[in-house]
Description:
The complex is a heterodimer. Helices cover 39% and strands 18% of the residues of chain A. Chain A is α+β, with helices and mostly antiparallel strands. In chain A, the strands form 7 sheets. In chain A, strands 2, 3, 4, 5 and 10 form a 5-stranded mixed beta sheet that branches. Chain B is 67% helix and 3% strand. In chain B, a hairpin with a 2-residue loop joins strand 1 and strand 2 (96-102).
Amino acid sequence: MDRTRVLVVLAFLLLPLGGLEARLIHLQLVVGGESAPDLNNRRQSVEIVRPRRGRILDRAGRVLAMDRPCFDCYLVLEEYEKKPGPLSAMLKMSAEDFKQAVEAIYEKIEKQVQARPANERARVYRRERRVPYLLKRNIGDAAIPIEIAPERYPGAVVRESLMRVYPYKEAGCHLIGYLGRVTANENRFRELLQNGYLYEGFEELIGQDGVAQLYRRGAFNEELIGVAGVEKRYDTLLRGKPGLVLLEREAGSATKKTTEVLPSEPGQDLELTIDIEAQRATEKILAGPLHGAAVVLDPRDGSVLVLASNSLYDPNDLTPPGNVAAVRQVIGDTENKPLISRAFQDQFAAGSFFKVVTSIAGLEGNVVRADDILPCRGKFDEKRQHFNCWIWNEFRGMHGDVTLHQALEKSCNCYYYEVGRRVGVESLSRWARSMGVGSATGIDIPGEAGGKIPDQGREEDAMMLAIGQSQLMVTPLQAAALMAVVANGGQRITPHARRGGDQPPVPLKISPETLKEVRQGLYDVTHSAGGTAHSTRLKEFKAVGKTSSAQAERGRESHAWFVGYAPYDAPQYVVTVFLKNAGHGGQMAAPPAALILEALMGPKEPPRK
Amino acid sequence: MIPRLNKTILACVLLLSGIGLLCLWTQAPSTDLAGKSITQSVFLKQITFLGVSLAAMGLVAWPNYLNFRYLAFVAYIVLLGLLALLLVKGAVVNGARCWFSVGPIKFQPAEFMKIALVLVLANVLMYGRDVQTWRGILLPLGLTAIPAGLIVVQPDLGMTLLLIPTVFAMLFTAGARKRHLAILIALFLAAIPLVWMKGMKEYQRNRIVSFLHGDSYQVGQSVKACAAGGAFGRGLGEGAAAPLYFIPERHTDFVYSIVAEDLGFAGCSFVVLLLTIYFATSLRIAHQSREPFGRLLVVGLTTLFATQTCINLGMTLGVAPVTGLTLPFVSYGGSSLLVCSISAGLILNVAARWQPGFSSRDMAGGSVEIRDLQPKSVVGVGQ
């Protein structure tokens, strides 16, 4: 081994180090030496470029939410206070509001100053007073005079930005949702800062320092995120990725050099399954003093076409800059609770439409056959005082001998007391859960209520549950999911609002014979002369279904339900209509269901008598 | 003082780590996003790393380095396994799977592989019998290619690039024919287009293209900050108080830009001088050592870290593309510091035992078996 070869290696290694030293001389002594004063006076600041948030579209491509360009007014405190112009009048702000807005800017600066070491504070304070801070968003036409004659409004800086607009206003508000400031929820803000959601990709470019500086300047505080509805659920998809620009300027010079460091990526559009025209029509049909909700699903795949509740808000008011007075009103309305959708975020007593579940449980459990005749004598038996048929309670009447079809058609309680007694609570609740009642359906909108169903109990509990009373609580959406199982031939579907968000249907092993019998019963409800929803226009739309008049609070009218589907020979729509404390389902809930179907399917010729 | 401790190496290590701490103190992000001060915690972390690293250095310098010969094979195989595992289970950082996260500690197997590989190569090449034949060259090349392949698919191109000059320098020192090496280098150059087309990821190509075009954002920022330093710098801590330029990973990969901005040409040259002394002293040790394993070991380690230094400084000064390699001893980061210190420990170890009067000729004669050599018996045998 030749030891002198080590020296050759040494020479090879020293060569590049010498080269680097030469580079240092060039860079620091020649280039840096010449222009050092320049370089030391240069300041870089970094700003976030907000991407366009994706649009939300309905099934026909109608725009439900979009970003629209708008003008925001910023204020440079130092310039404004030297010579205040008539800015507040131009922006149509009262003296009080304007003073508050300026105060808010001072607070922001103060917060930043406090975050710095004591010896830097004076300098940071002076610097920040020369930085434009947001004064008012969406100033509209006021932007033009300020842009044309900036000398009249010292300190005012107009910048273009984007604001979220919901063209259909209240329609579908619970489904679409709205945006809010990320700082509104302190914990969530912390979490998003910790996991880097708000500055993805920034750190690789401007380092932790840069991100920290952005944070100290409050650059993330104006960030908007989805707070409710699909705006929240699909925030990641819609928001896009923010970009970065570097602004470089010489001290004492106004000219700036802007370098795009990270291009922003616009968010993706979100297509929904909702039909906004039908939604709006449904909301109009439901409008009135009674609290109510309606749901329309496609039973074949679980697409949500209509998800309506009749206490609404306008997302334009709630999304910043928003309308403070309207927000106060919405939050303060504890009577109607407009922020909560009664279609899926609240739960109610179910009533007779649950007899569909009892029928299936009875037939599949072989405890009753479709042509078995069970007697209705008005009262179930003498021992149990409270187990009466509705016809006894109202007319002291009775249904006589009934089969399954007739029991469904006339909503006979006594028939189902007996079936429920034979089936038992456990089996009933198992069937109910498998069909989507009593537990969350898994719809892709946040805040779904879970519903409630007892899992075990005595004979009397089974009898009560069999007619949909007892402790059973459901959402109108769950009722629709239940009826979808009957409509689509025994498959459990997951309701979803995003187009293409289908989850594979789960077959429930319900025999075709059972389904045929139940469907025949539902047909009779709307078509046979004795049906509870016979005297409605539902026949025109080949609609079948079940009514409910669920006893709720003592001394108040019962909840009115209609849960059905149309057309019966090739089901396309499952319709649920719910009206709280409205009275009889057949009288109160079935007629609106017909109107909703008309909105969806167009007017139909009444069938010939 | 401990006898035969090479004080130059030790002084360089301590000074460079000190400069690293200084930079960290003045430049580390002062607060996290919750507004909590983290300067101290980052600084304390690095002090802890330094303590552990210096302890490791002492530990490695203590027993006769010949004891590491066989241990090296075990480490090599274990690390190969870890590198393979990393491709399946590693945490993805900046698009690459380089790290294992074990609780709060991030472990980068590739860093440790560097040392294991040099040890293994020194072992294979120490007798120098076959190195003049193609067959003899192929074994070390193959031993390098396996980990290099596993590292390049992570993908960590910078780390892979370090291994090539290292294996060449070791082959050259072991006595390989110049003709063979020249042919190999020609083959490597010929393979570059192939690697460019097939082997590299889009972002790596972009980095190099943007570097060649001179419009790489990171490098541009770093060069501007370095130039702003001038002859004597803006003063310690100035860069942090009022950053002129935003530089990512400033206290890790771009730590040299802090030295350049705050301490100027004087500080930069001092760092280069320290590193030069460190490498030159190491190679002097290799030159003087009469024992081939130790010599090859030192040559390999020195080439490895000198190449890493050149690529890191070149990146900071805008003459090499961004590769994510740290500056030995100065950059923030536990793995890097630990590995550099272990390497320094090995060099100190060889330096302490550089005097045995055995040449390869003696061993070829079979009069003395290397494994019989104990440090005590070695010491005192004159040259």
